[in-house]
Amino acid sequence: MKSFNGIFPAIITPMTADGRLNEDAFRQVMEFNIQAGVHGFWVAGGTGESVLLDDAENCRIAEIASDQNQGRIANIMHVGAPTTARSARLAEHAAKAGCEAICCVAAVFEGQSARGRDVHYPIGAAADARAFFVYNLPSATGVEITPDLMAKIQDGVPQLAGLKHSAPYIPYVKTFAEMELSCLIGNSRLFLPALLIGATGCVDGPPNMAPELWVAIWRAYEAGDIPAASKAQEKASSAAEALSVPFKFHGAIKAVLGQRLGIDCGDPRPPGEPLTAEEHAKLADKVVALGLDCCGQ
Of the chain's two ends, which shows fewer C-beta atoms within 10 Å, N or C? Predict the structure, then answer.
């Protein structure tokens, strides 16, 4: 099994002008990040607009990601859906497509706080022994995966490898680490602090745009140079703040990647809002000011 340590951009889903999946742009974004040194991808998650994709699109994305990756790093494919049966079918397909791991958000409408084990087991089992990650995103699901609930899932899902922790209570990272789970922090501005209390890596959208900034944090941390890692974290956090906070999140990430790679990543899928012409211009200026206008150089 591949390790799940390091930086895992939550990759965007580029769209064509008429709103379809842009396969060529997806491959270019993926390769750009691979060449920058990332350790894997969180595919078709929140940044990838998963809730706005149909099952056929999710299946095709799993196929493209595996084909482009060719086993170089680890693709963690999100298979969350409103029903367990749909998630299980998506998990089965992701495994057949060659994804190295799967992940799943809690069922949004089901209130599964007491049934985490029962809900996650069939999804994990469908993925042909692939590593399984829980996606802890209570702001979207209304269900927080607490350590107690995670212990039930851990007890009942043998494929469980860890979780993406996107809940607000960060000290749980240490608890999950003590449970021998791979805990990927869901806030890239807290990458280094989370590593220092036991996280194994980070999954977030902003690293799509400037993967080299977050790879620098990891490399300094791995080398034991915490002062350098801290400086790298400050630089990466400043970039994330400048490029995503003042703008519409999905539109901003797509626009920055389009500018850096010289491609069109399209607009967010409705009801997501596109950037205005004024926002595009302001964002483009920020990319230049941050020295990110030359494709990772």
Answer: C
* Residue 277 burial (C-beta neighbours within 10 Å; 0-12, 13-18, 19+): exposed
Residues spanned by the domain of 34: 6-225
Query: Is residue 141 assigned to a domain?
Result: yes
Please tell me which residue in 164, 248, 254, 286 is annotated as part of the active site.
164
For 236-282, write each residue's pLDDT tens digit.
Answer: 999 999 999 999 999 999 999 999 999 999 999 999 999 999 999 99
- Does 247 fall in a domain? no
pTM for this model (two decimals): 0.95
Reduced to 3 states (helix: H, G, I; strand: E, B; else coil), residue 273 is: coil
Contact 44/13 with Cβ under 8 angstroms?
yes
Bridge partners (DSSP) of residue 21 are 15
Ligand-binding annotation for 175, yes or no, is no
pLDDT tens figures, 91-146: 999 999 999 999 998 765 555 555 565 667 788 888 988 999 999 999 888 888 99
Q: Establish whether 203 is an annotated binding residue.
A: yes
* CATH number for the domain that contains residue 45: 3.20.20.70
**Poorest-pLDDT segment among 40-44, 150-154, 235-239:** 150-154
Decide: helix, strand or coil at residue 33: helix
- The terminus-to-terminus CA distance of the chain in angstroms comes to 32
Question: Catalytic: 96?
Answer: no
**How many distinct structural domains can be found in the chain?**
1
The answer to whether residue 237 sits within a structural domain is no
Amino acid at 111: G
221 catalytic residue (yes or no): no
CA atoms within 13 A on the CB side of 10: 25
Q: Measure the CA–CA gap between 12 and 45, rounded to whole angstroms.
A: 8
Q: What is the CA radius of gyration of the chain?
A: 18
In a domain, 121, yes or no: yes
